[in-house]
Amino acid sequence: MSTESQFANPGDRYVAKMEKDLDKALKDAGLREGRGTLVKKNISLGDFKTKSQYFIVKFRDFGAIDGDLVKVSNNDQVIRDQIFLDANFKDVKINLADGFNKLDFEALNIGSLGGNTAEIQVFDDKGQLVTNDYWDNLAAGFKASIVVTKE
Question: What is the pTM assigned to this prediction?
Fold first, then answer.
């Protein structure tokens, strides 16, 4: 004897699996972030030499817009204490000191859909692209850094 009602929708038994498959497809296509493994370490985005007086650093959330926040500093001096990442690039001008400069970009939080996801573009004072990189699922409190030596 079956416990199913004759009035039940026979498709209901497939809904959960279909929603799970759709969720996975959206994550794979980059249309939804997942709460995957958070990166819980500081990461390096490269070492560079330049004669530029300053860099223009552009940030945006390359994943879903879910409230990611970033702090920008140079040699431990805060340039911007909080930048909200959305689909459009936000520019930050960083004046470079002679010699060593360590540019830190700190994930202040994880967004509502997963870890902090940011794309970073760095331009010199002539508008030339120095580097273009990103981090995926960076945990709050961890940093991505660029080391710049101004000649």
Answer: 0.75
